[in-house]
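Let us work through a complete example step by step.
Step 1: write down the sequence.
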Amino acid sequence: MAKVAFIGLGVMGYPMAGHLVAKGGHAVTVYNRSADKAARWVAQHGGRAAATPREAAEGQDVVMACVGNDDDLRQVTLGPDGAFAGMAAGTVFVDHTTASAEVARELAAAAAAGGFAAIDAPVSGGQAGAENGILTVMCGGEPDVFARVAPVIAAYARACTLMGPAGAGQLAKMVNQICIAGLVQGLAEGLHFAKKAGLDTDKLVATISKGAAQSWQMENRHKTMVAGEFDFGFAVDWMRKDLAIVLAEARRNGASLPVTALVDQFYAEVQAMGGRRWDTSSLIARLER
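Step 2: predict the structure and record it as tokens.
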């Protein structure tokens, strides 16, 4: 059993922190900007709620965070009330936020200066993966530090891999989002074409999903895409945030991402249609306007 703080109880963090108690058997302290949500989590799972990230981090073995973006991450870690101000030498900070590789390296350096360590550990699997405790976690940091925290992360992960030094986890998550963006656009166009051609989409997918076209998105989203239902997890607003990080990193490292940039603009069109909170499979909606 470890003493763990979890900062950020959004749609991902809330169930992840719950698994730390229910599956991991850890003693968990939570912090959330909305104190009501933290109180609700404690009522459901036990543990305690802290008034600040610093208070949550004090006396812990591991401090975890899952917040919105780079700025949110700096806000909960740095400064007099940030988690880093409460962390003792030898402890580990694990960041599950999807953020930039730049901020991951910045926080790793700040942690080292404070005598503790940091791991960037963005996740894939969406809200359902968090609720079911089957996330995929991509990590950046030192091997010995990763070995210490991997058993804790296992409470909500089915796969947890060290990808390289600080920032490598965030870079791996960027690749994940690049692949998803192109794949969903391809699936949207395929289903749109099938409908225009008068094909039975259920029969079609049952056939082609047994071959090279198969994907998780095809298996799990084709019915809802055809039905025009887009209330199933990862929102367009979040994807555009992630793709902005991807495209900024590509400008730095010289990667050519023409399809990713195009799909990002397609998501902007979905936002303009009122689909900011629709899930990412809503790319088909812009084809059927």
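Step 3: interpret the result. The mean pLDDT is 97.
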